[in-house]
Amino acid sequence: MTYVITEACIDCVDGSCLAACPVDCIYTGERMFYIHPEECVTCGACEYACPVEAIFHEDDVPADLAQYTLINAEFLAPLGSPGSAKRHGPLHSDHPFVLARPTC
Ligand code: SF4
Ligand code: SF4
Predict the structure, then answer these.
(1) Whose CA is nearest to atom 4 of ligand 1?
(2) Which ligand is nearest to the CA of 29?
(3) What is this structure's pTM?
(4) Domains defined for the chain, CATH in brackets
(5) E strand or H helix at 96, and its extent?
(6) pLDDT for 54-75, tens place per residue?
């Protein structure tokens, strides 16, 4: 199980969730952040830290945001499992779906 970052994070990226995550599994894209589904320990701390309610447990992702479960996983899949977003550093890119979203 994992948590999922969704649409409201796009162009917000304040990073409050990073400080809340005990296992450093939230990776930095250019327009939004992404949770690594294999590294997330499903603690829920990030959900409460996010000021725009962009983060959901994967079982609770609203239907109109359902694609973000795959978006988080697909975007991070090429990394394998680095084990630390800080050590890995920012990705300077985004999932194609996110790149195509209008700016807010
Ligand atoms: S649920 Fe916990 S482990 Fe998973 S991304 Fe959020 S803070 Fe990190
Ligand atoms: S706290 Fe919310 S809006 Fe801010 S970077 Fe994290 S997911 Fe995005």
Answers:
(1) 40
(2) 2
(3) 0.97
(4) 3-83 (3.30.70.20)
(5) helix 96-99
(6) 999 999 999 999 999 999 999 9
